[in-house]
Amino acid sequence: MRKGEILGVQWQHVKTTAGVIDLPAHIAKTGTARQVVLTSRLAAILDMLQAVQRKARKLDDDADLPGTGYPFGNEIGEQVKDIKKAWLLTCRRAKIAGISTICGARPDPGCSKCRA
Fold this sequence. Notes:
Elements: H1 3-8, E1 14-15, E2 20-23, E3 34-37, H2 40-56, H3 83-93, H4 102-105, H5 112-115
Antiparallel strand pairs: 1-2, 2-3
């Protein structure tokens, strides 16, 4: 999945019992709807994100989240459009200083930003 597709996924597209994300055509870069298979790791991450969003919304553990919420959004399920801004806010909330890029968390020798 591409970054824009990931950020556009809503809870209504996530079908955990079927083990897929239904990616609608209007989100897909190609303009063609498709299904993305959930790996066990991604399913676990989605479970964790549901728990975080339920807690932030003060919902019961078994309560349904709004279908229009964004699994890969902020802590209450609002859409995140800018990964860089979200990263900086996350670092600030976690009181992590000195990492201004995602690359800074795990430098990649092939990345020109990491070598700078």
